[in-house]
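Hi support team,

I've been running sequence recovery on a batch of backbones for a student project. Most finish fine, but this one hangs at about 90% for roughly twenty minutes before it completes. I'm not sure whether the input is malformed or the queue is just slow. I've pasted the structure tokens below so you can try to reproduce it. Let me know if you need the job ID as well.

Thanks,
M.K.
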């Protein structure tokens, strides 16, 4: 079991780190698209600069997310070949769709958006960022369809020692995946909104010259974060209706439910321990719910405060608290992910394939080496991402290169 535990730890660290990049990318991309839409309709120079500033932060995080995603998917073949051989025809199909969307469509249109500033018609340029946002949502959709199958296998038939897809519609309509999609997208909007509000509060507290710029940005962030917390909590509540019996019993610490779930699995698969780690399930769930409760009440109070312009520009204690809140949505997201994934153990495909059976034929020494390598790579990427985001955010909009025009370039008004 040492080898399996090491491989699980490796995937947990890499997948969890990548998930945090994804959450900020989804949230910021949507906010940037909304701000650019307003700038395009109204011709507001402030919102055009807001689009460039927040867009550059989004691009930094997106680039690091792509790198971590590639590294994470590499280890599916490295450590989990048993899973791909057994269920690759189902969850692998969704992963293939995600790869096509993220690495071909999304990245292509993002490149056009980055290099199309001052070269494309303003409406065409706006359309590009919305295509990027929609393909980002599609990418998350296919990832969660894949994960939903692992949580609640549907639309399959067992042929020999492999699963074959029999109903693609059932795979896509899997309720476990459908609820999770909206829950994750809502959480991503909370991450993006609080990030925007926190960075803006930092500049307002320091009395930088861009007071109007960051006052507007703070209001956008809070105006998104508050309803997003309600949206996320709603679909999180619906998600409890799709829990596996063992996870549900672990969450409520129901001894009879745990015993019944264990007995059912023993009858179907023979002797073994088929219960999830109760402590991890409860800790993940409670941390997620407490973090979102704090975010909801703080966002509600911030929404009321932002209605008064003197407070937006002069309430320094509020500014400090807003900036300090930036990590909390990330904590809530990773705690929810722990709750979801730990509650599935010891199954890689719930009720069909255990994690031990999903392992590749590798030794503990090989997994230790790859664990050290993956952790080192991800630690470096996280530090670089944090440094680049913090550096760009501190410098403010005047230091942003995205969308800059050469000195001899025509006015944007002439290129519309």
């Amino acid at each position: 079991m040492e080898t399996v535990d090491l491989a699980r730890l490796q995937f947990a660290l890499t997948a969890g780190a990548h998930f945090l990049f994804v959450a900020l990318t989804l949230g910021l991309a949507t906010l940037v698209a909304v701000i650019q839409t307003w700038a395009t309709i109204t011709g507001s120079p402030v919102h055009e600069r807001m689009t460039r500033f927040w867009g550059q932060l989004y691009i930094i995080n997106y680039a690091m997310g792509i790198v971590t995603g590639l590294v994470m998917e590499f280890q599916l073949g490295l450590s989990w070949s048993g899973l791909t051989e057994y269920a690759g025809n189902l969850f692998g199909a969704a992963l293939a769709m995600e790869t096509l969307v993220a690495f071909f469509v999304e990245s292509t249109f993002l490149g056009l958006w980055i290099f199309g500033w001052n070269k494309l018609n303003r409406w065409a340029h706006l359309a590009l960022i919305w295509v990027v946002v929609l393909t980002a949502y599609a990418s998350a959709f296919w990832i969660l369809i894949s994960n939903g199958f692992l949580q609640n296998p549907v639309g399959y038939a067992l042929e020999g020692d492999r699963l074959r897809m029999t109903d693609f519609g059932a795979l896509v309509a899997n309720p476990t995946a459908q609820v999770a999609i909206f829950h994750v997208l809502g959480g991503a909007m909370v991450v993006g909104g609080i990030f925007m509000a926190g960075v803006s509060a930092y500049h307002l507290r320091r009395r930088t010259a861009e007071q109007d710029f960051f006052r507007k940005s703070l209001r956008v962030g809070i105006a998104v974060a508050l309803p997003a917390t309600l949206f996320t909590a709603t679909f999180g509540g619906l998600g409890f209706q799709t829990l596996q019996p063992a996870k549900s019993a672990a969450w409520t610490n129901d001894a009879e439910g745990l015993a019944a779930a264990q007995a059912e699995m023993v009858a179907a698969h023979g002797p073994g321990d088929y219960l999830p780690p109760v402590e991890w399930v409860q800790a993940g769930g409670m941390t997620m719910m407490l973090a979102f409760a704090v975010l909801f009440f703080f966002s509600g109070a911030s929404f009321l405060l932002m209605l008064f312009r003197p407070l937006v520009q002069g309430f320094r204690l509020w500014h400090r608290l807003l900036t300090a809140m930036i990590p909390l949505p990330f904590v809530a997201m990773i705690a929810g992910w722990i709750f979801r994934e730990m509650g599935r153990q010891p199954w890689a495909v719930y009720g069909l394939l255990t994690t031990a059976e999903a392992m590749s034929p590798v030794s503990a020494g090989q997994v230790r080496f790859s664990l050290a390598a993956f952790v080192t790579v991800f630690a470096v990427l996280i530090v670089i991402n944090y440094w680049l985001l913090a550096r760009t955010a501190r410098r403010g909009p005047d230091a942003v290169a995205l969308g800059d025009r050469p000195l001899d370039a025509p006015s944007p008004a002439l290129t519309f």
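--
Follow-up from support: It reproduced on our side and the slowdown came from queue contention, not your input. The CA atoms of residues 111 and 224 lie 26 Å apart. No action needed from you.
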